[in-house]
């Protein structure tokens, strides 16, 4: 059985719900099962947002992520709030603006937000850059499936922009694991 | 405790994931808790798609809808596949194209798809018309919260179109409960 429990965290407006949906749809293209969950509680009003995805070769009975294998954080607030939920030996990926010095796990740090905003020039692709980095580091889905899922979800006319965002994410992810 | 378990079903491309997200965000605006879940399994490849939302005044421990209180179906295929999951006494809302003669529950039928495509003239607002009808029939969230959630999620420049879609949905829902 091959299973990944993934938590994507950051702030509202960074497109993490869409990132979760894309990741789940990529898993389906890979022939797996997936559940994408968005929980809103009192903390949803506090500025830290999260989206969760479970990917499995088997049927998924309990759809909520408890401890995750893969944790992404794009803001300090979401890191502080959710990083404790990562399993020992899990993969922690953070934006370079996040101070993760207290992490017990190995931390992969990459300038995701800055690259989206200044290298690609569109903050709206932050989530796609993040997905590229996450997949290059974790291999949670194949790159072929990820690209197909991204292209089926992004607005028409932004395909090339989003391919470039994915590509930058892959490069960043590959650099982070070197 | 006030709790609604809602299943939205139809075919891919009808925007039901977004409808689920909007419903969950409206519940948060109403001051409640919400979980939105998207499960993909072998059936996701078969053409029927579903999105689930739980809304509660209390903390939501198990995030997956088992039997729902409110069931929406926009296609015959999704009706056939998922309608059995509605509780006795639950609210069943179907598009007029759906034959729901075998239903044990009271059925509210409304021309959601046709109204979006031909009265409003944009099939892309099918999901918003459906939300209007669902909320007029079930009161799962307040209309004020629904409108606010819709306007924060739809593309810029489509606000008036989507307000009109909501309004048509409300009228249809009100007619269905008469």
Describe the protein.
Two copies of one chain form a homodimer. Helices cover 41% and strands 26% of the residues of chain A. Chain A is built from six helices and six strands. The first copy, chain A, has a single domain, classed as Pyruvate-ferredoxin Oxidoreductase, domain 3 (3-Layer(aba) Sandwich), CATH 3.40.920.10. Chain A is globular and about 35 Å long. Chain A is of the alpha/beta class and 178 residues long. The model of chain A has no long low-confidence stretch (mean pLDDT 92). Chain A has a six-stranded mixed sheet with strand order 2-3-1-4-5-6. Chains A and B meet through helix 1 and strand 2 of A and helix 1 and strand 2 of B. Strand 2 of chain A pairs antiparallel with strand 2 of chain B, so a sheet runs across the interface.
What's the SSE blueprint?
Two copies of one chain form a homodimer.
Chain A: E1 3-11, H1 16-29, E2 33-40, E3 48-56, E4 68-73, H2 76-82, E5 86-95, E6 107-110, H3 112-120, H4 126-138, H5 143-153, H6 159-177
Parallel strand pairs in A: 1-4, 4-5, 5-6
Antiparallel strand pairs in A: 1-3, 2-3
Helix pairs in contact in A: 1-4, 1-5, 3-4, 3-6, 4-6
Can you give the helix content of chain A as a percent range? 40-55%
Tell me the name of the CATH class of chain A: Alpha Beta
Question: Regions of chain A with pLDDT < 50 over 5+ consecutive residues?
Answer: none
Strand content of chain A: 25-35%
SSE string of chain A: EHEEEHEEHHHH
Oligomer: homodimer
Strand order of the largest sheet of chain A: 2-3-1-4-5-6
Number of helices of chain A: 6
Determine the structural class of chain A based on helices, strands and strand pairing.
alpha/beta
Question: What does the average pLDDT of chain A come to?
Answer: 92
Gyration radius from CA atoms of chain A, angstroms: 15 Å
């Amino acid at each position: 059985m091959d299973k990944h429990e993934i938590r994507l965290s950051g702030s509202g407006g960074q497109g993490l719900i869409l990132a979760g949906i894309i990741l789940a749809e990529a898993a389906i293209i890979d022939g797996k099962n997936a559940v994408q969950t968005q929980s809103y509680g009192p903390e949803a009003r506090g500025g830290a947002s999260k989206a969760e995805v479970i990917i499995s070769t088997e049927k998924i009975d309990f759809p909520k992520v408890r401890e995750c294998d893969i944790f992404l954080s794009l803001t300090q607030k979401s890191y502080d709030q959710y990083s404790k939920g990562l399993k020992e030996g899990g993969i922690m990926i953070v934006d370079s603006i996040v101070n993760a010095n207290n992490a017990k796990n190995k931390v992969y740090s990459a300038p995701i937000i800055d690259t989206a905003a200044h290298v690609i020039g569109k903050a709206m692709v932050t989530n796609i850059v993040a997905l590229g980095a996450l997949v290059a580091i974790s291999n949670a889905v194949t790159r072929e499936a990820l690209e197909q899922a991204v292209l089926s979800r992004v607005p028409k006319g932004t395909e090339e922009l989003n391919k470039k965002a994915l590509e930058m994410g892959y490069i960043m992810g590959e650099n982070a694991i070197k």
